[in-house]
């Protein structure tokens, strides 16, 4: 027979039990320490994140406060940054690639509850994984819903509610979030030119 945690990780209905409550208490202790650190304690912050999360790259940073359910089920690539008030509900895996930026108040929610009221009131719930690719920028106040996959090289506009998968190489926004256009060679040329002008000005 599967444990409640095994059921949770398999995306099946589950109830919180002593194992999950113990994991949650551990999470709260570490988060309290992390959110109580100062900007001068960068080494301690990295140490706490590596203790809290399932996987991190070497360069990972959350502005405090940061909240999550367990932490163990969050897997981050290199060069991850989240601005203030990030919330990740990781009752299912949250997998994020390299070079991902979150604006303030981004929510990543794998948790779900039954639509039927009687079943919901019984305490049963479930989770569905979320995956975010490489080189993604998620604008502030965005909500990413259970089961969503966001591709590589994507920009999500602020205030979006992402309810369906987003393909590679697009700008998407809205409620519900939808693709607005592709990221083009013209985008690359425009931003590369500005970068080169910046670098030249810094030399001059």
From TrEMBL:
What EC number(s) are associated with this protein in UniProt? 2.3.1.-
InterPro entries per the record? Hexapep, Hexapep_transf_CS, LacA-like, Mac_dom, Trimer_LpxA-like_sf
Q: Name one GO molecular function term.
A: galactoside O-acetyltransferase activity
**Protein name (record):** Acetyltransferase
Q: Which PROSITE patterns match?
A: HEXAPEP_TRANSFERASES
What's the short name of a Pfam family annotated to this entry?
Hexapep
Give the family, as the similarity comment puts it: Belongs to the transferase hexapeptide repeat family.
CDD domains reported in the protein's UniProt record? LbH_MAT_GAT
Which PANTHER family does the protein's record reference?
A: ACETYLTRANSFERASE YJL218W-RELATED, GALACTOSIDE O-ACETYLTRANSFERASE
Q: Which Gene3D superfamilies match?
A: Hexapeptide repeat proteins
Q: Which UniProt keywords apply?
A: Acyltransferase, Repeat, Transferase
Give every Maltose/galactoside acetyltransferase domain span: 5-58
